[in-house]
Amino acid sequence: MRETGDLNNLYQSILRSSELKEYVIPYLEAVKAMPGDSVLKEQGFKRKQQILEVIGGTEENWADWKWQLKNRISDSNVLAEIFGLSDLERKRIERVSKVYRWAISPYYLSLVGEDYENSPIYRQAVPDIRELLPGGSLDPMNEALTSPAPCITRRYPDRLIINVSNQCAMYCRHCQRRRNIGEIDQHACLEDIAQAIDYVAANEEIRDVLITGGDALLLSSHVLKYILSELHQIPHVEIKRIGTRVPVTMPQRITTELCDIIRNYPPIFINTQFNHPLEITPEAKAACDRLVEAGVVLGNQAVLLRGINDQPDTMRKLGQELLKIRVRPYYIFHAKDVQGTRHFQTSITEGMDIIRSLRGHTSGMAIPTYIVNAPGGLGKIPLMPNYLLQSRKNKVVLRSWEGKIVELDNEPPDMS
Ligand SMILES: *Cc1c(COP(=O)(O)O)cnc(C)c1O
Ligand code: SF4
Fold this sequence. Notes:
The chain is an alpha/beta fold. 38% of the residues lie in helices and 15% in strands.
């Protein structure tokens, strides 16, 4: 039989549980209002058939990344046919494309639902007239001043980036590296890559090498194999990282052949860029499964984008869906003031509010670090909501995730 104290504990626990349950109800309601899996599946299937019809292609073509790459949509007439765009809409796309290039993989375009104008997929992929608004910087990162060798960006003591390509499966409208993601598709030449590898080999403090671009996985498999195997032979390179958006924009690229190369050079970390839960499709999941099976540790670096993922519920859902496909949310980047992308910018406060809304309400593993890039190439600055209200020599005052105030001793006990 339970003692009175036990009963009281049980009563308290039940009360607390229902209080906790109350917290999650608005989120569950919001998720219910999002389109369900079966609706998405049907819309996706219809859109894919429609695209295949318009551009001409088979199921087999669709599964082939080289076909996806070659058949990227970059003609406003094709887009107009697929979405029934008005002549004005089509002309606006044309105007933007005179300044900024665009190209969308058939796969990524197939994720656009019926309401294309409000689709977070469409907005990331299709040129918007606001890209022509003035203002913003072309090189807010000052990348030109941090390159000690060809292809290299070095901003940290122990790690650096090798830029191996300026090609991407899609030219994201919010791209923060527009200056480098050129007008012509171009991989770095092998000579430059060799020099970059020599720089790494000659500098023993470099223990972490990030291969990125553009998109590192648009390199041919044999060049990628060359880079990985060279880095693998450098004793002080402890880990290799690859930056790529293909799991999101062209998951067909993650072939078993590619995975068979990757598995030979552990440890490899791949960071990708899912920005919205609608991007987490069965194809994307299958691509991530193949990478995990090849021993890769997967992470996600989202960009906080107005009108796409600036709602707390969207970010929460994104983080949770990512964990389901074994991708750990790593960073959310604050969108920098880059020319042509200003309509995507949010305030820094909004970013902090999103992070605050996540803590306590979802798995800690689903919460990325919010990063503002310091101008002038000074590096990443992490921003956290403030949980430390006061810090004195003998006492700290803290705030819990629910806003409850706690006081703690700041001194270890005197053990003498
Ligand atoms: C972002 C970045 C890195 C990696 O930084 P982490 O915080 O370790 O992920 C390394 N070099 C440069 C130049 C970078 O911009
Ligand atoms: S994949 Fe990355 S680098 Fe390429 S266009 Fe998109 S955001 Fe820019």
